[in-house]
Amino acid sequence: MGHLYIDGEHLTIKDVVNVARGGFLVELSPEAVTKIKKSREYVDNLVEKEQVVYGITTGFGKFSDTYISREDTKTLQRNLIVSHACSMGNPLPEETVRGVMLLRANALAKGYSGIRLETVNTLLEMLNKGVHPIIPEKGSLGASGDLAPLANMVLVMLGEGEAIYKGERLPGKEAMDRAGIKTIELTSKEGLALINGTPVMTSIGALAVYDAMNLMKTADIISSMTLEALKGITDAFNERVHKARGQKGQMATARNVLRITEGSNLTTRQGELRVQDAYTLRCIPQIHGASRDAINYVKEIISIELNAATDNPLIFAEDNMVISGGNFHGQPIALAMDFLGIAVSELANVSERRIERLVNPQLNDLPAFLTKKGGLNSGFMITQYAAASMVSENKVLAHPASVDSIPSSANQEDHVSMGTTAARKARAILDNVEKVLAIEAFAASQAISFREDVVLGRGTRKAYEEIRKNVAPVDDDRIMYIDMDKIDKMIKAGAFVKVVEEELGELE
């Protein structure tokens, strides 16, 4: 099993995936331990001197002007957690929760939060031993960070709430006992340090952008299969065309498609069958490329946020300062997640139009709806319906969450990001896109099976063979969703990218 040391400075998207999905063990670096201890000593000194500092010796939000005595510190922190645990709905997936725990610990490792070392280590022990708090997905405004869902996470640290442990949903205390982890009692500043920040939206975002990067390559592979199935024209992918425009993603997509289809005897040159193709084939580089550039932008934003201090107030012990700011505000992630949702939804928009070109006999030279016995068989007719349904749903989901804001805490918190909603929507869109591309792969492989004396491209051959390991050509009508689900799982597992890159080397 892999091992990861965190220090609040060097966490990557791949690290998040390794911990969330690969079960990597996580430990604080020696530098992080030193920073955490120094920050905590400073907080203890403030409490001892009974200085008025937001979140340490005061209430929260609109209650920031209410002084809290040293004797009430522990009660204040417990009340903060139990009162803020207001999330509702279905639990976030366990991989997302693991990402949340990792990101919160990594932010605390920066040494700006004033939390005790043993509290951070309790969180990491839960992560390493597989105690995954039940965090309902709805309830975050994305400023002051992910307060409600993070409070649900912290409940388990206190022996409250619920958690999944070894596949079983248990009361928090029982899960901690079974794992051999001591529950804790929070003291000054700790509750706020644990729940004030952006790790929920960022965990969802990190896993989503990682999947989107793989999906982008998958879209190039599947569209290349369709290009061959429809005897598409490769001149439109000539590098001269794309250099003349200069857009990075567009140039990368064109290079990918030419590499994937290299050696095919199905693709054509302009003028051989047609002078030019429809946009959904001819403009694959322009359409996919724009999404590729957008995904890379989101990757950059998420990569920064993984190592950000996002709680409040921040402790700058070396400078003898505690500053109340707004790093918990999720606006950077909100905009990025909205952009991600829009970018990947376009991959499904164009994929569904390619599906239509594969099944509609008015647009190709193939049997209608890709069946030899049309009328008796419906063939791939309804697969296009399913794709159209999900594409339409994505158009609703792609409406940006970040343009909305509802004031909270008696107008003290009068602009919020809705970043967690944006992240959840992006994740839902991504799932739909994976399914639409699965339908395109299913239809493209069926179309290829009608072609005679076929020599597929170096990459498309590998993708086609991978499909045929799991899904046979459709000769007579059968239950289609079973095959569609198989290919959806293949896409989610990165199967097409894996086999094509084994043949061609890494795609862009």
UniProtKB/TrEMBL annotation:
Reactions listed under catalytic activity: L-histidine = trans-urocanate + NH4(+)
Keyword hit for Lyase: yes
Modified residues (2,3-didehydroalanine (Ser)): S144
GO MF annotations, alphabetized: histidine ammonia-lyase activity
Record PTM: Contains an active site 4-methylidene-imidazol-5-one (MIO), which is formed autocatalytically by cyclization and dehydration of residues Ala-Ser-Gly.
Pathway assignment: Amino-acid degradation; L-histidine degradation into L-glutamate; N-formimidoyl-L-glutamate from L-histidine: step 1/3
GO biological process annotation, one example: L-histidine catabolic process to glutamate and formate
Record's keyword terms, sorted: Cytoplasm, Histidine metabolism, Lyase
Name of a matching Pfam family: Lyase_aromatic
Subcellular location: Cytoplasm
Keyword Ion transport: no
GO terms under cellular component: cytoplasm
Chain positions of cross-link 5-imidazolinone (Ala-Gly): A143-G145
Top EC group: lyase
EC identifiers of the protein: 4.3.1.3
Cited InterPro entries: Aromatic_Lyase, Fumarase/histidase_N, HutH, L-Aspartase-like, Phe/His_NH3-lyase_AS
Family: Belongs to the PAL/histidase family.
Protein name, entry field: Histidine ammonia-lyase
Species in which this protein is naturally found: Lutispora thermophila DSM 19022
Lineage, highest ranks first: Bacteria, Bacillati, Bacillota, Clostridia, Lutisporales
